């Protein structure tokens, strides 16, 4: 409702003109669109805008790299629908790594909540930009750049990350290269390795979680 003095204009009549939010209707019976349709506005409450999953640390033991990404995408946090934001909580054990990866549709900031993280990205002209961050620091990974994180502190580390898309995409470089059925001849030539000696070993050693 928008009020103009004594007049009251119901701009949300029939929900046609409201685009301030569109809490996703994730139900399988909802129509398929590029994104998610809006939950019936009459059924939206303040709880829809609250996200509490990040109260709990991710289990770093399950990934094979001693780090765990907990996602707050539109799937976990339907109020993000159409608003162009995704959040991630990263938990790291000592030495924990988030493998080199890209988000083709979003830039990302990483805020260190706890610990010390070495992180960086490779620019489109092949330069590594990287820093060791302390608690309270922020780093940014420009859209589409390959980036990674490693916990270089003496205890666990936590970061809170934000991406400017509700569907940023998440492509792990090792998996794309080694687990996507690219013909061996292509990889042998591209990497200068032999299938029997090197490629089988590499393919078998990619941590399964990230695949
Ligand atoms: C909205 O809430 C009402 C009352 O709880 C329920 O009957 C109706 O199915 C809900 N609509 C949707 C689209 O979820
Ligand atoms: C974390 O994962 C490991 C390996 O799957 C499991 O043994 C352990 O119980 C899990 N810890 C918690 C707190 O869920």
UniProtKB/TrEMBL annotation:
Subcellular location: Secreted, Extracellular space, Apoplast
CDD domains per record: cupin_OxOx
Gene3D superfamilies for this protein: Jelly Rolls
InterPro entries per the UniProt record, alphabetical: Cupin_1 (IPR006045), Germin (IPR001929), RmlC-like_jellyroll (IPR014710), RmlC_Cupin_sf (IPR011051)
Record keywords, A-Z: Apoplast, Manganese, Metal-binding, Secreted, Signal
Signal peptide: 1-18
Manganese in keyword set: yes
Residues of the Cupin type-1 domain: 52-199
Record family assignment: Belongs to the germin family.
Annotated protein name in UniProt: Germin-like protein
Organism of provenance: Sphagnum troendelagicum
């Amino acid at each position: 409702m928008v009020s103009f003095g004594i007049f009251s204009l119901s701009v949300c009549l029939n929900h046609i003109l409201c685009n301030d939010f569109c809490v996703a209707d994730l139900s399988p019976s909802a129509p398929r669109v590029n994104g998610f349709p809006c939950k019936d506005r009459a059924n939206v409450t303040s709880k829809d805008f609250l996200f509490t999953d990040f109260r709990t640390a991710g289990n770093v033991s399950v990934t094979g790299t001693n780090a765990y990404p907990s996602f707050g995408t539109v799937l976990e946090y339907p109020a993000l629908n159409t608003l162009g934001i995704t959040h991630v909580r990263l938990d790291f054990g000592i030495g924990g790594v988030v493998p080199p990866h890209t988000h083709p549709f979003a830039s990302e900031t990483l805020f260190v909540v706890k610990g010390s993280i070495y992180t960086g990205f490779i620019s489109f002209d092949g330069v590594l930009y990287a820093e060791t961050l302390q608690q309270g620091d922020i780093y940014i990974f420009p859209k589409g750049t390959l980036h990674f994180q490693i916990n270089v502190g003496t205890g666990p580390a936590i970061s809170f990350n934000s991406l400017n898309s509700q569907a940023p995409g998440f492509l792990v470089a090792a998996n794309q290269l080694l687990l996507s059925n690219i013909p061996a001849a292509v990889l042998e030539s591209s990497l200068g390795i032999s299938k029997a000696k090197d490629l089988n070993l590499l393919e078998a050693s990619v941590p399964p979680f990230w695949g």
